[in-house]
């Protein structure tokens, strides 16, 4: 339910733009989604690509453009010495995206772009991508070739190189429980850490977005430009009904802070939180989905309540 702009509307998404599509089973690179046109006998796209191996420097990607990508391809450029990635892991990586048709870099962590994250499940990234990533280790430099849809709906061919930094852990807030004001809805946690409201919110909601820290973590504080990885659940204030939850999907959510990829209440009120924290946000319509049902859907005009666990925050190179 958390709205995001098209992955390539202005810049590549901080989640794994090509990592989500490069090895999926439903794209052929021609703009259709029937899987036709990718032949098993086609030459692997990355055979024609040279990628530098010095992990202390930005990747250098060389190939003769335009590079034809007839089928998705993925491989390890440098094997890391960290833990093996397992199915279901959420990994944070530092990506570089290159347009296969021109050879020009579209976005790079090493040039001020955001970090990214991806959860290694077939449902999230496709069977081929998941099968590849479970062969990789933390600290690896990996390359993926495939396609992504731009803001106009056209498919573009991309090469992604990513340095895998870490696996996100733990998958719930961990820190010191804070004394709350009592003005906002009370929360109880399940055995796995998933939150629920103890009852329907009472009284009138705040007129401005209000944040209350429920658990204070011990990590670095989040800042604009960070790629946040989080768990969340959302309810409507007027009836206390849950409308969305990453916990139920069993997949953390990731976005880049301050880029307008999510509702304003999230974009402007999740900085300055130590990693490991849990916070409640109460967000009025103006900072959520507005009042127009055509654009805001069923949540238009509603004040929303979120409980958010900040699992990790990966900074840009400038802020790291």
UniProtKB/TrEMBL annotation:
<keyword id="KW-0697">Rotamase</keyword>
<feature type="domain" description="PPIase FKBP-type">
    <location>
        <begin position="225"/>
        <end position="314"/>
    </location>
</feature>
<feature type="compositionally biased region" description="Basic and acidic residues">
    <location>
        <begin position="199"/>
        <end position="209"/>
    </location>
</feature>
<feature type="region of interest" description="Disordered">
    <location>
        <begin position="182"/>
        <end position="209"/>
    </location>
</feature>
<dbReference type="InterPro" id="IPR046357">
    <property type="entry name" value="PPIase_dom_sf"/>
</dbReference>
<dbReference type="GO" id="GO:0016853">
    <property type="term" value="F:isomerase activity"/>
</dbReference>
<feature type="region of interest" description="Disordered">
    <location>
        <begin position="24"/>
        <end position="44"/>
    </location>
</feature>
<keyword id="KW-0413">Isomerase</keyword>
<dbReference type="InterPro" id="IPR001179">
    <property type="entry name" value="PPIase_FKBP_dom"/>
</dbReference>
<dbReference type="InterPro" id="IPR044609">
    <property type="entry name" value="FKBP2/11"/>
</dbReference>
<protein>
    <recommendedName>
        <fullName>Peptidyl-prolyl cis-trans isomerase</fullName>
        <ecNumber>5.2.1.8</ecNumber>
    </recommendedName>
</protein>
<feature type="signal peptide">
    <location>
        <begin position="1"/>
        <end position="21"/>
    </location>
</feature>
<keyword id="KW-0732">Signal</keyword>
<dbReference type="Pfam" id="PF00254">
    <property type="entry name" value="FKBP_C"/>
</dbReference>
<comment type="similarity">
    <text>Belongs to the FKBP-type PPIase family.</text>
</comment>
């Amino acid at each position: 339910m958390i709205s995001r702009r098209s992955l390539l509307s202005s810049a590549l998404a901080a989640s794994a733009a090509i990592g989500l599509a490069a090895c999926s089973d439903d794209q052929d690179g021609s703009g259709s989604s029937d899987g036709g046109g990718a032949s098993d006998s086609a030459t692997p796209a990355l055979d024609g690509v040279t990628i530098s191996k010095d992990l202390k420097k930005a990747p250098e990607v060389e190939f003769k453009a335009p590079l034809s990508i007839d089928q998705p391809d993925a491989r390890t450029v440098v094997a890391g010495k960290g833990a093996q990635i397992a199915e279901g892991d959420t990994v944070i990586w530092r990506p570089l995206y290159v347009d296969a048709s021109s050879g020009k870099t579209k976005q790079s962590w090493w040039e001020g772009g955001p970090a990214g994250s991806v959860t290694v499940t077939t449902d999230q990234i496709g069977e081929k991508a998941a099968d590849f990533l479970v062969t990789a280790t933390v600290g690896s430099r990996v390359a993926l070739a495939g396609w992504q849809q731009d803001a106009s709906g056209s498919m573009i061919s991309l090469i992604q190189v990513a340095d895998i930094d870490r696996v996100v852990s733990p998958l719930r807030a961990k820190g010191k429980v804070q004394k709350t004001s009592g003005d906002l809805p009370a929360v109880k946690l399940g055995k796995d850490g998933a939150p629920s409201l103890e009852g329907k919110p009472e009284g009138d909601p705040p007129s401005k977005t209000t944040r209350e820290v429920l658990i204070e973590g011990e990590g670095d504080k989040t800042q604009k430009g960070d790629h946040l990885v989080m768990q969340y659940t959302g309810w409507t204030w007027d009836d206390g009904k849950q409308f969305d939850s990453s916990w139920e999907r069993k997949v953390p959510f990731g976005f880049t802070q301050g880029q307008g990829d999510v509702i304003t209440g999230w974009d402007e009120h999740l900085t300055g939180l130590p990693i490991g924290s849990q916070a409640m946000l109460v967000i009025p319509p103006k900072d959520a989905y507005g009042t127009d049902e055509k654009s805001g859907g069923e949540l238009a005009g509603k004040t929303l309540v979120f409980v958010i666990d900040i699992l990790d925050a990966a900074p840009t190179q400038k802020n790291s």
